[in-house]
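Supplementary Methods S3. Complex input for the glutamic acid-bound model.
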Amino acid sequence: MNNPAYIGRFAPTPSGFLHFGSLVAALASYLDARAVGGRWLLRMEDLDPPREMPGAQAAILHTLESYGLEWDGEVVYQSLRHDAYAQVIDQLFNHGLAYACTCSRKQLEPFNGIYPGVCRNLGHGPGDAAIRVRVPELSYHFIDRVQGRFEQHLGRECGDFVIRRRDGLYAYQLAVVLDDAWQGVSDVVRGADLLDSTPRHLYLQELLGLKQPRYLHVPLITQPDGHKLGKSYRSPPLQPHEAAPLLVRALRALGQPVPTGLAQATPAEVLRWGIAHWDSDLIAKVPSLPEATL
Ligand code: GLU
Ligand code: ZN
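Predicted complex, serialized as structure tokens:
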């Protein structure tokens, strides 16, 4: 089966190893693609070298391979896409759709992450400044395949947002939109921690005349205290010898009715079962699930 209408992707950030929460997101996007004969691409979101963990890139690729999650084609590295990002930033800046911001972190502290627009009309040059996109006083919404309707008023709930940091690093919010479009991604399947970034993505897509993909946000796996799993919360990295039982556990986290005994199968057999039985309607319509209950 080869379905050219579906292109999915997994887009890990190499700031740490993959953990159970990343496995749930990777598996959901893999199964959603493979169940319809679609392609599944891999993109390394290596935009922030200072926050990168040495060895994480190789470890992520190795983990995916040992779990049987084979991607199509070459890995795309965002670190090799800087020219594309810079070109779009110039274009937005020159059209007055983005502007330079020299506000310090400290200055912005009282505003709870919603930029108050201080530099909007000050006409700073683009050097030694962050670049922000001007957002309209409008709501953007989409229908998530699992979470349903999600809406955000960009002016009130987000504010003008950064697309290039003052230190010259490009922002996830811009890179993800450009790369999903460039790679022809039809279906974005990822963790629900990115639900509230999606309206920004919709706005950038509109601004740049890019096609909007479908979205499916899977519940975020959290620690008992409600925190996201990740290196800061001592979530253990995925071990190759645990592939089959952890894939089964990830299937359960995605609401799939896994038969008992499948945990004794090989990773490839677990994935074959997952592809044959994939039903995204069974995924819980909740933003997060505590790991301890799975
Ligand atoms: N790189 C992001 C992360 O690891 C995921 C981005 C996405 O799927 O859009 O959280
Ligand atoms: Zn500013």
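The pocket of glutamic acid (ligand 1) is lined by residues 11-13, 45, 176, 190, 194 (CB under 6 Å). The radius of gyration is 20 Å.
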